[in-house]
Write a structure and sequence with these properties.
Layout: E1 3-8, H1 14-25, E2 30-33, E3 45-49, E4 64-67, H2 73-76, E5 86-87, H3 92-110, H4 113-121, E6 137-141, H5 145-156, E7 160-165, E8 175-178, H6 179-188, E9 192-195, H7 209-213, E10 223-226, H8 235-243, E11 249-252, E12 272-274, H9 284-299
Parallel strand pairs: 1-2, 1-3, 3-4, 4-5, 6-7, 6-9, 7-8, 9-10, 10-11, 11-12
Oxalic acid binds next to loops.
Length: 314
């Protein structure tokens, strides 16, 4: 029997997670939802999304921490984070949602849907030439779990796909680049830039005007799709690039500040798709079983999987 504390901020229904954890734990574990911590010394595991800073440091017998999402930047920001194993979610449910988002947005831009949406409002029956997907080079920044699966989805849709990662990697049919040294060449062959990077000191602000200028301009004006983190993009640079034609379009799921302010120019920008950080939403119906299996395995003496490297920040 383990005691599990959920600490969730910024999501709409923390109680839904509690209900699901309790249902799946089936009286085998005690599950509590912050701020109902109970006796801090009883808590064995914490499962968190944007936990209040300092909370985890008050739990003296904590054995491990689980992020309720794939990213851990929200968790690592806590200046009093205890030195314990931290695991993140890797789950087919989360991955396939991201693949759907990435492929859909690549197609929206390739098929020039902003033009057809405007035409539909005007009842205008007009066709525009579009280059085939194979002529369009998609480049994925971040070839981890999400990037690799998205690359397969994009290939299935017919796009030419390349990837960029921190360390050298090989994937069938994907032109790979790595590190600072590989970035320039990667950008120079990329029309649609997909960002699936974790937010770390190295990736903060990486999506900026200087980078946009390096993207390939044929056969379509460059497009960015950011489903990584808002901290990776300089929003004033995106607006400048869209307005002066450096970028032809953008799909933004994440923002420097979330929720996106009601007066943000992105909301009604004619070249921008905005979604509320739900490219791949964590669904308790799918993910709770995954975390409980990890806890059960660890309690039996097994290893926790999908551990985060705190030095690298992902
Ligand atoms: P992974 O840890 O599996 O992959 C991260 C990838 O980024 C790796 O390929 C890694 O390189 C690469 N990377 C990290 N730092 C750098 C760098 N400085 N330069 C170049 N490449 C770098 O993460 P996931 O694929 O599971 O998730 C990626 C991110 O997606 C999450 O951190 C989160 O921010 C975001 N996300 C967003 C969601 C949404 O709804 N918008 C939902 C889920 C995730 P290497 O392979 O060499 O280690
Ligand atoms: C995640 C997210 O990291 O939803 O899983 O952003």
């Amino acid at each position: 029997m383990a005691n599990i504390l959920l600490a969730i901020q910024g999501w709409e229904n923390p109680e839904g997670w509690l209900a699901r954890f309790r249902e799946f734990a089936n009286n085998k574990h005690n599950v509590r939802l912050w701020p109902d911590v109970g006796a801090p010394e009883d808590i064995d595991y914490a499962c968190v999304w944007k936990q209040p800073h300092g909370l985890l440091a008050t739990l003296p017998n904590l054995k491990a921490i689980f992020s309720l999402g794939a990213g851990v930047d929200h968790l690592l920001r806590d200046p009093q984070l205890p030195d314990l194993p931290i695991a993140r979610i890797v789950d087919p449910d989360l991955t396939i949602r991201m693949v759907g988002y990435v492929v859909m947005h690549a197609l929206l831009h390739q098929r020039q849907m902003k033009i057809y949406e405007a035409q539909q409002r005007e009842r205008a029956w007009r066709e525009h030439y579009e280059p085939p997907p194979r002529a369009i080079k998609v480049g994925i920044m971040g070839m981890g779990v999400m990037g690799q699966a998205s690359a397969k989805g994009l290939q299935a849709a017919g796009f030419s796909v390349a990837g960029w990662s921190r360390t050298a990697k090989k994937f069938e049919g994907v032109e790979m680049f790595d590190g600072e040294a590989g970035l320039k060449e990667f950008l120079a062959r990329t029309n649609i830039l997909v960002c699936l990077l974790p937010l770390t000191p190295a990736t903060k602000g990486i999506l900026n005007y200087v980078l946009f200028k390096q993207l390939a301009r044929e056969p379509i004006a460059p497009v960015i799709i950011n489903a990584g983190r808002g901290g990776e993009q300089i929003e004033s640079d995106i607006l400048r690039a869209l307005d002066d034609g450096t970028l032809g379009g953008a799909s933004l799921d994440v923002f420097e500040s979330e929720p996106l302010a009601a007066d943000s120019p992105f909301w009604n920008h004619p070249k921008v798709y905005v979604t509320p950080h739900n490219a791949s939403a964590s669904d308790p119906r799918a993910l709770v079983a995954n975390i409980l299996a990890q806890i059960d395995n660890f309690e039996r003496g097994g290893k926790i999987e999908n551990l985060v490297d705190r030095k690298l920040g992902y």
